Task: inverse folding
């Protein structure tokens, strides 16, 4: 569905206005579409590799935005999904500049262990100074980090539960709705001190 302008007329798509996406945008869309299509079909990487004739390792790199596939590789992937190459690299709702990270996209699950689960909410393919994470801490679990680069800070908001934030020698207790920012170029810890799980959103800003 195309959104309407304030006058009620359909807004022209970027492509209709002569917009030509940059190669980086095409690559980003390709890796997103491959992940989404594989998830919709409930295919493993091995299943897609078998259907496309592209190696599992190459597909993994493509999905993470760490490899720029050749035209032949992209064509094989599109053929495996039963669509033309143009449809594979074209965003749904032609020319959309909205990048979506789906909740079920395993490529964005950064870490999962007995203490916590971390999901990155930042695009994997971008070199960036800001990173955004969803962190779920199990009861008694914690996220202990070594010092990051000089000048790095973290901004944390508690969505659920109770956590203790420690940055070097400083410590604060936070509950749902509380936010804190602190130095992350020193040893720092986020510890679940409440009952049940805790959920926090974490933004890391590198100097």
Result:
């Amino acid at each position: 569905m195309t959104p309407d302008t304030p006058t009620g007329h359909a807004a022209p798509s970027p492509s209709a206005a002569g917009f030509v996406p940059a190669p980086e945008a095409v690559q980003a869309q390709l890796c997103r579409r491959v992940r989404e299509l594989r998830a919709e079909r409930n295919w493993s990487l091995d299943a897609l590799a078998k259907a496309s004739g592209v190696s599992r390792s190459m597909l993994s790199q493509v999905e993470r935005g760490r490899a720029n596939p050749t035209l032949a590789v992209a064509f094989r992937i599109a053929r495996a999904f039963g669509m033309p190459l143009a449809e594979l690299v074209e965003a749904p709702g032609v020319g959309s500049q909205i990048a979506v990270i789906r909740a079920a996209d395993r490529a964005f699950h950064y870490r999962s262990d007995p203490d916590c689960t971390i999901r990155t909410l930042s695009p994997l393919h971008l070199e960036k100074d800001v990173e955004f994470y969803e962190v779920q801490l199990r009861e008694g679990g914690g996220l202990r980090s070594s010092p990051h680069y000089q000048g790095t800070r973290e901004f944390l908001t508690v969505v659920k539960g109770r956590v203790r934030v420690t940055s070097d020698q400083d410590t604060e207790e936070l509950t749902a709705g509380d936010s804190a920012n602190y130095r992350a170029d020193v040893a720092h810890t986020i510890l679940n001190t409440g009952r049940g799980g805790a959920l926090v959103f974490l933004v890391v800003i590198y100097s």
